[in-house]
Amino acid sequence: MGKREKKRIKGNHLKPRLTVFRSNKHIYAQVIDDSDSTTITSCSTLEIEVKAKCEKTSNKLASKIVGETIGTRLLKHNIKEIVFDRGKKSYHGRIKELAEGARLVGLSF
């Protein structure tokens, strides 16, 4: 991702930024308020409640569960709109499943 695209993706109090990082074994999601430089909530396949719901942590099902989990946590904070930041990865596969899992819960982006 170049500097131009990074400048466009910013989160604020009303629409925080959902950042996704994908490794070979796990997927991590973090919601950041860029105006305060604070993390609102985070979720990954390393958490016990997520690991209990899926067999493997490196597949699409695990990514969807992480998306649903972070979506429910954001709804508890009364946040319904976010900005999606996928990093350098393409919107495909596990990243897409995480986004669809968050949309299933009721987030819009």
Automatic annotation (TrEMBL):
GO biological process, one term: translation
InterPro entries linked: Ribosomal_L18, Ribosomal_uL18_bac-type, Ribosomal_uL18_bac/plant/anim
Gene3D superfamilies: 3.30.420.100
Keyword rRNA-binding found: yes
Gene label: rpl18
GO cellular component: cytoplasm; ribonucleoprotein complex; ribosome
Keywords of this entry: Chloroplast, Plastid, Ribonucleoprotein, Ribosomal protein, RNA-binding, rRNA-binding
Name the record gives this protein: Large ribosomal subunit protein uL18c
Family: Belongs to the universal ribosomal protein uL18 family.
Domain of life of the source: Eukaryota
GO molecular-function terms, A-Z: 5S rRNA binding; structural constituent of ribosome
Organism phylogeny: Eukaryota, Sar, Stramenopiles, Ochrophyta, PX clade
